[in-house]
Specification:
The chain has 412 residues and is an alpha/beta fold. The protein has two domains: 105 residues, Alpha-Beta Complex (Aspartate Aminotransferase, domain 1), CATH 3.90.1150.10; 252 residues, Aspartate Aminotransferase, domain 2. The protein has twelve helices and 13 strands. The chain has a seven-stranded mixed β-sheet with strand order 1-7-6-5-4-2-3, sandwiched between helices. A hairpin with a 2-residue loop joins strand 12 and strand 13. Helix 4 crosses helix 5 and helix 11 crosses helix 12.
Length: 412
């Protein structure tokens, strides 16, 4: 497409935009269980209006926009208040989980260089189920990745002993997930923390999915194990606001146990012709709308609102699990939050996924082991019965050998 010689009116462009999304996943109808976190029209309105009010402001300039600096500070303080942040803890907002993970790894690497005399190639040790954002960050920084097999006990958890054995003098970070994305299982962070302290290795909790879910689930009585700064060995946490924080994209947080650890994250540039520039995260320009929307949603919901939303998601997941069992599926491990992976012992999971896709459901899959995967939102409470009925029909279709071609799905 070439740029048009003359402009087009907004009314026409608006209709084009509406028409183009007709083939997209129907997340507004609750038929998408990945990529989008639908907390209802009231939260969406807060997202939209707060984002629009600050969409032109730039978080890169805190002196120019002290309002954004104050909102970011308060977002971080609210995050630390529910994640057992000690008095010296701090952090920053980022554009998403990959950004948060990258900056935590950058801080851990620079800490190891400055405080532990690290030279040569660094490495990180993480479970097989950890998010590939760690691999991306490692690729950018030339860090070796050591992925360790999960425990072979059917629980789909990290193996702390094996991970500890994989550490050496060049290990800058161990990783645990709360929960992991493929199976929705919280790793044994407390055990990892003990090993990390014994080996003097930085432990990072990837709570991109659970950071703004697990604390409220625990308040609702869910037996969530220790995973945040409550565990002494945890030095940093990544937690996405645009997932179960229900903020507008892209908004995440990267949090550190102390200001000293955090000090290794920002990038300071002075050897150029322009003014000195310091950036706390990977991005230069930082959209003000994402900061404002996150601040607004957190204050709009508060602890009570988050408890209500996360309670509804947990109830929906439990309803789904009962439905899976009735249809002969088995759930992988014992998920506690909003993610669940499940498979049928006799029939091809990906063939079943294909049938569900043809019925308008856009979800995800897990490849190890092959299974279907849901990341549930409050909206799904309204449609889970419809999903289960379509799953029953899809299973019957596959069992009868009448399914169409498989449909490929990818992780988010």
């Amino acid at each position: 497409m070439k740029m048009p010689d003359s402009g087009t009116g907004w009314a026409e462009l608006r209709e084009t935009l509406i028409a183009r999304r007709q083939g997209d996943a129907k997340w507004r109808e609750g038929k998408t269980a990945v990529y989008v976190f639908n907390a209802g029209p009231d939260v969406a309105e807060v997202q939209h209006e707060a984002y629009s009010m600050y969409m032109s402001e730039n978080g890169l300039g805190p002196l120019a926009f002290p309002s954004l600096a104050q909102m970011e500070k308060e977002v971080i303080e609210m995050a630390l208040s529910i994640l057992h942040g000690p008095g010296d803890a701090t952090g920053a907002m980022t554009s998403g989980g990959t950004d948060s993970i990258t900056m935590a790894m950058k801080a851990a690497r620079d800490f190891a260089r400055a405080e532990k005399g690290l030279k040569g190639t660094a490495n990180i040790v993480l479970p097989q189920s950890a998010h590939p954002a760690f691999d991306k960050a490692a690729h950018l920084m030339d860090i070796e990745v050591r992925r360790i097999a999960l425990k072979q006990d059917g629980r789909y958890e990290a193996d702390p002993d094996a991970m500890g054995e994989a550490c050496d003098a060049s290990t800058i970070m161990m990783v645990g997930s709360a929960p992991n994305f493929p199976h929705g299982i919280i790793d044994p962070i407390a055990e990892l923390g003990e090993i990390a302290l014994a080996k003097e290795v930085w432990l990072h909790t990837d709570a991109c999915v659970g950071g703004y879910f697990a604390p409220f689930a625990r308040m609702n009585g869910v037996p969530v194990p220790p995973f945040d700064f409550e565990v002494p060995g945890v030095q940093s946490i990544s937690a996405d606001l645009h997932k179960y924080g229900y903020a507008a994209k892209g908004a995440s947080t990267v949090l550190f146990r102390s200001k000293g650890l955090y000090s290794h994250m920002p990038f300071d540039a002075r050897n150029w012709s322009g003014a000195p520039m310091t950036t706390p995260t990977l991005a230069g320009t930082r959209p003000g709308g994402a900061i404002a929307a996150a601040w607004a949603v957190m204050n709009f919901l508060g602890v009570e609102g988050y408890c209500e939303k996360q309670g509804l998601v947990c109830e929906t997941r439990e309803r789904a699990e009962r439905g899976f069992e009735a249809l002969g599926f088995e759930v992988l491990g014992k998920p506690l939050l909003g993610l669940v992976a499940f498979r049928h012992p006799e029939h091809d999971s990906f063939a079943i996924y294909g049938e569900m896709y043809r019925k308008g459901w856009f979800t995800s899959i897990t490849v190890d082991p092959p299974s279907l995967h849901l990341m549930l939102s409050p909206k799904h409470a309204e449609v889970i019965d419809e999903y289960m009925e379509d799953l029953r029909i899809s299973l019957e279709t596959v069992a009868a050998g009448k399914q169409g071609e498989k449909v490929e799905a990818r992780y988010n």
